[in-house]
Amino acid sequence: MQKIIIIKYGELTTKKGNIKFFIKTLKKNIDESLKDLDYKIEYDNGRMFIFSDNLDLIKKRLKYIFGIHEIIIGYEFTTTAIEDLKNNLKNLIVDKPISTFKIRTKRSDKTYPLTSMEISSTLGGVVLKNVPNSKVDVHNPETFIDVEIRLNKSYIYFDGTLSLGGYPVGVQGKGLLMLSGGIDSPVAGYLAMKRGVRIEGIYFESPPHTSDAAKEKVKTLTKTLSSYSSYIKLHVINFTEIQEAIYKNIPHEYLITIMRRMMYRISERLAHKNNAKIIINGESIGQVASQTLSSMNVINEVVKIPVIRPVACLDKLEIISLAKKIGTYETSILPFEDCCTIFVPDHPVINPEIKKCEEYEQLFDFEPLLKSAIANEEIIKITPHDKKFEDIL
Q: pLDDT at residue 177 above 80?
């Protein structure tokens, strides 16, 4: 008998022809998360098995990996004989509190002499005989006992732990996340990763108008998000000259609209430069002036790359709930201003016009400023286990 971790894939099993690619990507992500530990992985299209003397720590790390439906501590046996199964189950249920239970049996070895129902019935008798006051409940049991029979091996395990689900990070390519430091954008990044997108972040700083503390806040948020993807590259863009030029030349009700259009232009160019297929942000419909449908349309007009808004149709309370769940909320509410909150006009336009934006943008030569900001970007690689951030320039 060997104690192991069993991983169930969940949604990955729907991929049919691409399932091998999805599972190999999942294994690669697990290897990256466990690279400092001693372990062995075996897998096929139905299950993944992890062998190690450090299963508890491995289980904790697996909880942060997308593409896993369920994590189970189970037991592997190098026998499939029914008498051995009975004895092995008897040993496992010693002193285990079981009141109502159901046995679920799966046979990938269809040559096995007993059907799944016959195996379940036989093993159910073992539980009833050896656990006082236990009862079978096929509809709503307190304990599930799972038995899997494969060629030359069998597995017994009890209730597992549901994990994050989704797709392994990276199977859908890369996206560039506009990370502001607020509540919404980290949640948007998390949801994009859950759909298999590997993210890189872009943060616009505007010193001295924004502080070093605001930048550290975003780096901390990135570190938290990196727990779900092993690492994230953060692109820091100095936006000061651009923002000051906007403030000096643009009618104030259009400050936010023009600022966002400039950010989108820079984000699109960085996305192409880094092979990202989409831009991701935390915009939620109607939450602020720049997030009305009219504003989104006018701001989006300056780029051709798709812009994905994972929290667009969630209300603020739903977004806050997710932020607390993923561990970003307490950092997001720290009171440090970012580019989107400085120079905010008293009455920003909520229904901007494209023609006016194009007219106002002719009032200053922004193209050299955009090129300079991109040329002087700072790139930081952030990982969940490092004690400090690593500047990779």
A: yes
Q: Which two tokens stand for residue 245?
A: 């030029």
pTM: 0.91
Mean pLDDT of 234-247: 96
Convert the pLDDT of each residue in 364-391 to its tens digit.
999 999 999 999 999 999 998 765 544 4
Q: What is the mean pLDDT of residues 309-327?
A: 96
Query: What CATH number is associated with residue 95?
Result: 3.30.2130.30
Q: 71 near 5, Cβ under 8 Å? A: yes
| Residue at 169 is within a domain | no
Mean pLDDT of the residues in the chain:
93
Residues 140 and 238 in one domain: no
Query: Do 185 and 151 have their domain in common?
Result: no
Within a domain: 189: yes
User: Going by C-beta distance under 8 Å and a sequence separation of 6 or more, which residues neighbour residue 218?
Assistant: 179, 180, 181, 201, 203, 234, 338
Give dist(CA 214, CA 186) in Å, integer.
Answer: 15
User: Which residue do the tokens 């007009």 mark?
Assistant: 301
Neighbours of 359 (CB within 10 A): 11
Domain that residue 225 falls in: 174-391
Domain count across the chain = 2
